Amino acid sequence: MRPLPRHSLAHSDGRRLLVYGELRGSLDEKGPAAAADGAEIHKRMDVFTETWVGIAPARNTRPLDSPAEIEDRDGCPFCPGGIEVPFSYDAAVFDNRYPSFRPDAPPAPLLDGRTGPARGRCEVVLYTDRHDASFGELSPTELARVVAVWVDRGCELWADPAHAYVCVFENRGAEVGATIAHPHGQIYALDHVPPVTAAKSEAHLRHRRREERCLSCTATRADDCSDRIVSTNESFVVAVPFAARWPFEVTVRARRHGLRRLADLVPEEQRDLAVALRDVTRRYDALFDFQLPYMMVAQEAPHDQPDWHLAFELYPLYRAPGVTKIRASVETGLGLFLNDVAPEDAARRLADLDVPAEPIELDSLFAVTQPDAAVLS
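User: That's the sequence. What structure does it adopt?
Assistant: Structure tokens below.
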């Protein structure tokens, strides 16, 4: 694997910027104007579900770009010359200017219910400095670099005892909340295990006690021989879930028992993950012949869960051209999802699409290195 240097810089407001690949510049000592201080962020406990809700009013001050600006990089904070990375780069990660969770979280306010500090970390992952790209349009080298960055960030964030869970994700499109068109994802490190993850972990434990086998292994084998297969490779099964909640929802799940997190990927699995995720996003764009908005979430194993296979879940909003799936009253108030597209039909329609792509070779993969000699501020 090729070495991928990681350079650590610091903005004038103290936020860290990690540049992966060649370092082509430095940060202005004055730097951008500081964002809102986020003193109001905190968590509140919902007593009826016993789950935390994050409160982050400062997020309302985030910069927005409209669809008309997608073709114009002027003013984009993520493009070279922007406020986050003022020089060209291959890939970069920085602390979010508008975080919902912070390692130095302010004390929680004393209110009439249970509150807690919003401890954690929110990072932005810039896939490339090319404004007009998307995940599915990244080159093999760019895709391999992104996976290496995910692995690197995961290793560091999971190793911090303050973090109970780490989540890599992407929101693509204004319909799912992306406020900036430049191709990017995010990483949240949390001080608690979120409720969906906790429920899945409990399901694994119950299955192990009842069946004496791994739930992820069972589900992966079932997907692999079903009518819900979209594509497949030696390391991952790509299928529409049996009980998909969203139209054209897809899960990319690891075959190997023991591949629990991104850090567990061997080189062949890094390549196969990049191929599988690129394939799904290209199928989405070909489905209705436009860039389909989606949410993509990496499901890594919690600390205490050995029976868990790394998975990426992708949730697109559209169920037909010009028709979005709305999470309406029953889904939001009761948690009972209603899917207008049968999973088998969704899988067939996705699988039938022709989405040729350039192969990703093992010799294009990266392993992150951290040279001591390239630290600028």
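The mean pLDDT is 93.
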